[in-house]
Fold this protein.
Amino acid sequence: MIDVQNTPDTREIPLQKVGVKNLHYPVTVLDKTNGRQHTTATVSLFVNLPHHYKGTHMSRFVEIFHRRHDDLGMKQFLAMLEEIRQSLDAEKAFGCMEFPFYMEKVAPVSGEKSIMNYTCTYEGEVSESEKQFFIKVAVPVTTVCPCSKAISEYGAHNQRGVVTVKLQNTSLFWIEDIIELIEASASNGLYSILKRPDEKFVTEHAFDNPRFVEDVVREVCIALKNFDKCEKPFTWFSVECENFESIHNHNAYAMTVK
Amino acid sequence: MIDVQNTPDTREIPLQKVGVKNLHYPVTVLDKTNGRQHTTATVSLFVNLPHHYKGTHMSRFVEIFHRRHDDLGMKQFLAMLEEIRQSLDAEKAFGCMEFPFYMEKVAPVSGEKSIMNYTCTYEGEVSESEKQFFIKVAVPVTTVCPCSKAISEYGAHNQRGVVTVKLQNTSLFWIEDIIELIEASASNGLYSILKRPDEKFVTEHAFDNPRFVEDVVREVCIALKNFDKCEKPFTWFSVECENFESIHNHNAYAMTVK
Amino acid sequence: MIDVQNTPDTREIPLQKVGVKNLHYPVTVLDKTNGRQHTTATVSLFVNLPHHYKGTHMSRFVEIFHRRHDDLGMKQFLAMLEEIRQSLDAEKAFGCMEFPFYMEKVAPVSGEKSIMNYTCTYEGEVSESEKQFFIKVAVPVTTVCPCSKAISEYGAHNQRGVVTVKLQNTSLFWIEDIIELIEASASNGLYSILKRPDEKFVTEHAFDNPRFVEDVVREVCIALKNFDKCEKPFTWFSVECENFESIHNHNAYAMTVK
Amino acid sequence: MIDVQNTPDTREIPLQKVGVKNLHYPVTVLDKTNGRQHTTATVSLFVNLPHHYKGTHMSRFVEIFHRRHDDLGMKQFLAMLEEIRQSLDAEKAFGCMEFPFYMEKVAPVSGEKSIMNYTCTYEGEVSESEKQFFIKVAVPVTTVCPCSKAISEYGAHNQRGVVTVKLQNTSLFWIEDIIELIEASASNGLYSILKRPDEKFVTEHAFDNPRFVEDVVREVCIALKNFDKCEKPFTWFSVECENFESIHNHNAYAMTVK
């Protein structure tokens, strides 16, 4: 049976990335409390394609991912990319895997337990000489507007916002520790269950800690620089905060890159 | 050239709806202030299909919509559906058209003008004997939580919410009047531009008017029953409110149907 | 601490539904092959609210769901709704839970195994006297256009489509059996891994089985009426097919209700 | 009234971008045939924020955009960003504006006219010394799989795909010319209306021109290098193609950067 993809190509245009996008798969990742966590992922997998090949073999990406989907900690994710790279005889392989990450939260006064979801994304790139790994974590938070609080006789507009951190790391750390760091940098973290004493607590706590998007980004930056639950400091990171303003139908946004 | 769609079908299964979905088109609708408003729509158009036909002729839906896209007030929308019904020799035709509707707002203290967007949807159904028209308007608002305000020593959690009203009407009315009615029923309406004196005003005004999702729905219901800017009262309506809670990552919701 | 929600309300407007929407949780559902399947869900939970209460207690929905999220077969889902109904002293409780459902598929020639995802939704409503349960399954398929095949000298446009079935059932059945029934009614089912001999097979098989959206809906209808892997026949169902046409930027659609 | 944003900040963290996201506004852009085109946009506007300022003044972004929303050709978009930069006394201003762009198409045999939509995005960055402008155009196309055609006795799987080109340009060109270039590089362009003789034509034409995602990207690259409807060649571009595979539930993807 003819292998069209293997046909020589004379157009002399190398491609940075070819592969599969939007593959939906169940996956297992690491969990600080329980060891392993079952979740569901949306996955993209690519290699580079030299100019002289007509096409890549798309089924191999999924075959390799299929064999490894049940054990995808950060290290295993990079090993999976390396296997793709070698199988397709490419210089580079790239991958991206987005998944909801679940974490049990304890309500601040009642102690009621519930589960919160945070959107995480692994991003990796491997070549023969180099491996790069990034992790992105999006954490929803409460933000109280410092300007609204300062100028109003009572009250202050507040809203749900989302803080997104992207980290480059060379040693292992726990996603849970990053989530806690981010929630502590906003006016408040969010919970799936709050009883009335909890609601009183979070309302007053947030009002006592007003934060612009600019403030949240800066506080997260400082906390990431001081983060000591990782063997080595992060070599690179970016921090974003986007507020779903309660007084506007558009969002406020701030971003910085280390 | 053979017309496969016209082939007889022996499976004896009539279809309630066949047609096109997710057609994107520029459209022109009516505007209380400026007469006409240019906007962009996502459109679905269907007819019923008797059991003895294999298929419908999909291109005719778009041909008729194309001829009429530049003049789509409520009446013209129903006339367009009737033309589809007759052209396809069907008992019934259905249509749905969602579009952002823009309205100029004036900031409450500074008087600054800006434009707000509201998602509107026309829904129509026509047969030889009957015409039904519904309009849905989704209005983003501010809601301050009455419980949080009552139990906390200071502050109150608040957030962006969205109120969605669906109305059946037999006489014309202005979308703008429905938007104003809804904004007046929430803790506050939203604005694209607010200067600091406006921000002080809306913060305090919202704090003075706390509303649960349940309250917003009930206030909108009362206002719709008393609405006098339409020749005839609405024969049917539903009201929903969904709050993007600033203390949770899930939403609070209430709904009622007249 | 004051309970504002319990305050009497004098507006005399009962609400059909109040509760929580867009709650994200890990869940465990039943699986024909493995007994249980871990997946992730988006959940809405409501009760009705009589006119004389100001509000409902939103945290209780999540408390009850939290206790039961790890065992949510169809029966357990209804039991969970009944517990919510009683806990909130309501006449009715409603719930909706959408989740990706994963199923292993075997490629038709090479026999390679891979996992496909299907979007499923449970919908339930319980009152003291009645329980209703619906399940919705969305199955992506291939459809080859019969008209294009008939009028062209070679080739035929084809595309990905999605068939959505909603079933009311009173006895248990397997989601996997519904998926197989739907895939057999289209030009072809989809796979996450196809090697070249598989690709040849599915291309020719689909070309041999051209289907309009109208055909797919009718074939699924017939198969559901003849479905014998369920103790009792379905009391109600609807079938939709939407094709992401490869020659248009809009979709073709057909729907019927039993 | 206190200006909290103007308060000095001692955390010594400059922010790359602060501003507004997800602002929805009606806009007017240029149109090759009609001079001007009314459409609707989603807009983000940012400036950098030096480390010594606590916050930016979010309302000014919207004030400036509001004054200019009705005349937003490429040049005017950059002028708008420059006005924001100066008004907020910033070193840099950034903006991003996504909108559906509509273009009349003529069916290849019947000559029937209809309107197609293409998603366009302006991206600009201005500083005192430099102005950069990028435009992104996403064009839905048909792609027939060369492998499936070569290995199958009849038929070939095909599907809707989307080609996204991002161009940096220093002289004006027409979006319409880029769309035509892209459609000519795929197996076929799409149409909102095709009568049966047109459907025969596009089916056969696509079958005669099979293209992998890799092929489409390379053909578009070659065409962009040879593009002569612009005063100066593009200084930079990227080309992506993503196929919504009709035999998989995931997508095939290829990308290159000049």
